[in-house]
Amino acid sequence: MSAPVEDFVATETAVEVDDLHVTFSGREGGMARAVDGVNLAVRKGEIIALVGESGCGKTTLARTILGLEKPASGEVRFHGTPLEYNGRALKRYRKNVQLVLQDPTGSLNPRHSVYEAVAEGPRTHGMDDEIGRVTRALSMAGLRPPEKFFLRYPHELSGGQRQRVVIAGALALDPEVIIADEPVSSLDASVRGEILALMLKLREELGLTLLVVTHDLGLAWNIADRIVVMYLGRVVEQGPTEEVLSNPQHPYTRALLSVVPEMHGTEQIVLSGETPDPTKIPSGCRFHPRCQEVRTGVAERAGVLGACSTISPVVLPPSIPIGVNVADLSHEAACHLANPPPSA
Q1: Which residues are bridge partners to 32 per DSSP?
Q2: Residue 247: phi, psi to the nearest 5?
Q3: pLDDT tens-digit profile of 34-59?
Q4: Closest to 96 measured CA to CA, from 9, 179, 202, 214
Q5: pTM of the prediction?
Q6: Strand order in the sheet with 332-333
Q7: CA 328 to chain centre
Q8: Among the four 80, 152, 185, 199, which has the fewest Cβ within 10 Å?
Q9: What angle in degrees, to the nearest 10, is found between the helix axes of 130-140 and 114-124?
Q10: Residues 83, 240: Cα–Cα separation, whole Å
Q11: Domain total in the chain
């Protein structure tokens, strides 16, 4: 397996996140730091996979990029302009940045026909040529001939067809960016590849920018130009897909990769415990209580064990030079083994 487009080069940035913090009221009056100082920049036409376990903050980050959550601090920028949170600005922004959810059945109103589902967005935004937009969107999503699907209802479609309808609903608005939250997790294995191939085709034909939220590094390897790994609200590793997955630098990334079925001959790494409560983030490296390198003595032998429990690794920058081949972007990890602190 390899990244789909290793020679991808972009000339501008589509979406940027600068020192983003998102908090929620947690249990016992604590404050949950769901996103805790994230920097991210997505280049126009790029496909980024945002990877991590449930509870790592990736979906909250995606929702904040969409303007569905308002950050406690930091900002989201679209083509360099900070996102505004009044109704008119958000409506204009969401025409350009669309969401595709993981459960097509839950995303579609069972009482609405396919035509009504796809036409909803253009109607909301007062766009012209409704029939033409619906027809083109369904065709681009692989539902051909599109007229055949106009009067069908969700229960009459297969899971893959329902997901294509959801994608068509986003395409009908001519967006620049699509954020796909676990876009194939509810689909049969035989259909997953078709939907991933469709996403790659849409990037190629329309110049779409895609941020794919997933727990599945196997999926990321097959679709993404770049991988961003999150753990407990922070980015812990990022870089070109081939580089990150052939030579992972963070123990958390190695653990995630060890359970990918395609990684033949890799010993499975079982992490101890669950992801910590975001209201009680551990001191030092927030991964150290579950880290296999701490547990097996590797960190101690490397002389960084004390740092792991007391010194927080540096927050990773967005790492996104414009006009640079994606394969030449830096590969960075927020880990004391990869980057020992001066005191270690």
Answers
A1: 24
A2: -145, 60
A3: 999 999 999 999 999 999 998 899 99
A4: 179
A5: 0.92
A6: 97-100, 177-181, 209-214, 47-51, 226-231, 234-240, 332-333
A7: 21
A8: 80
A9: 120
A10: 27
A11: 1
